[in-house]
Amino acid sequence: MPSPTQKWGLAVEGEAAGYLARLGYRIVGRNVRLAGSEIDLVAWEGSILCFIEVRARRTDAFGDPALTVNRAKQRRVVRAATAYLSRWRRWPMVRFDVVAVVAPPTGPRRFQLIRSAFDAEC
């Protein structure tokens, strides 16, 4: 049974998926678990396969949520993305994006998409 914080995180990830869909992304995976890690969202933007990390905070008083995607997290996402792609004969163009969300308990949520937030050489 997920905790209230996990439920909130899943809800925000769902909203981030909707945000990306409105921008033209085609979501093909959510919470993909591979190689001991998780990819929040996998989506196509045109011919580019995007592995997307969603980071959310209830307030930005302690900084931008995107800044919490440190090198260790980047390496875990890259490892999972490599496992995801291992079943492909030819890899498509790939990109690692971050969606930062400030989601206060009341009021509108703010979404920020950072395309090519990091690369596979982290």
Provide tags for this entry.
122 residues; 2 helices; alpha+beta; 39% strand; Trna Endonuclease, Chain: A, domain 1; five-stranded mixed beta sheet
Q: What this model shows, in words?
A:
The longest helix has 19 residues, at 4-22. 28% of the residues lie in helices and 39% in strands. With 122 residues, it is α+β, with helices and mostly antiparallel strands. It has one domain (4-116): Trna Endonuclease, Chain: A, domain 1. It is built from 2 helices and 5 strands; from the N terminus they run αβββαββ. The termini are far apart. The chain has a 5-stranded mixed sheet with strand order 1-2-3-4-5. It has helices at residues 4-22, 71-85, and strands spanning 26-34, 37-45, 48-57, 93-102, 110-118.
SSE blueprint:
Layout: H1 4-22, E1 26-34, E2 37-45, E3 48-57, H2 71-85, E4 93-102, E5 110-118
Parallel strand pairs: 3-4
Antiparallel strand pairs: 1-2, 2-3, 4-5
Quick rundown:
The chain is α+β, with helices and mostly antiparallel strands.
CATH topology: Trna Endonuclease, Chain: A, domain 1
Strand order of the largest sheet: 1-2-3-4-5
CATH class (first level) name: Alpha Beta
Shape summary:
globular
The succession of helices and strands, N to C, reads HEEEHEE
Tell me the number of structural domains.
1
- Indicate the proportion of strand residues: 35-45%
Q: Please give the CATH architecture.
A: 3-Layer(aba) Sandwich
Number of helices: 2
Low-confidence stretches: none
What helical percentage do the residues reach?
Answer: 25-40%
